[in-house]
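Lab notebook, bench 4. Still working through the backlog of constructs that have no structural model yet. Next entry is a single chain of 228 residues. Request: give me the structure tokens for it.
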Amino acid sequence: MTLGAAALLAALLFVAANLWVLGRTHSRIEQTLPMCGGERVGIVFGTSHWTRSGVRNPYFDARMSASARLLRLGRVDHLLLSGDNRTRFYNEPVTMWRDLRGRQVADADMTLDYAGFSTFDTLVRARDVFGVEEAVLITQAWHLPRALYIADAVGLEVTGCAVPSPSRRVSGEWRLQAREWVARVAILGDLYLWGREPHFLGPLEPLEVAPPFWEAWLFPEMPETPAR
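Model written out:
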């Protein structure tokens, strides 16, 4: 009976923690891509270009397609591409950069963060290394509640842009969803119990965000606006 009661309590706390994160963030998630943004900076979270089965990762393609479209629509002015680069054989930021160049995104509109080893690292580094204060987070809908919650905790003013779902069914999607439920609980411990820190920081290197073309035409003498 004691073990059963403990298991029930743990299950209730698990569900309550997830509902807390979802409840605190759902109102700031935009599901319609053209309505996303309105901020100078879009933060794009890295993921593998390929799946374990050797095919292109539809989640990667969705993030890149949405990011390029947000730039074209003028909903963001600059993209911070943050991902894992633990070894020279695996480099998420460069892969994102190459893909976006193929989608006609200019180099001046992208900054690469090579130490975005996790959602937490990406957001703390956006604040402390790249001087970002306000941004739109670009990723899948199931990832956004955790990302938004972390951003709130570290003092960023953000909204979430849910990229469109893949047109084809993705094998193992249920595992990603289940892992995200666990990750939401874990991040509460990281933020409030054991004081997690990012793997690497560094000196402040504020993003150089080029003004929109219309602003540069109307106000040619105005300096570039710092990232917010």
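Notes after review: The mean pLDDT is 89. The longest helix spans residues 2-25. Flag for follow-up if needed.
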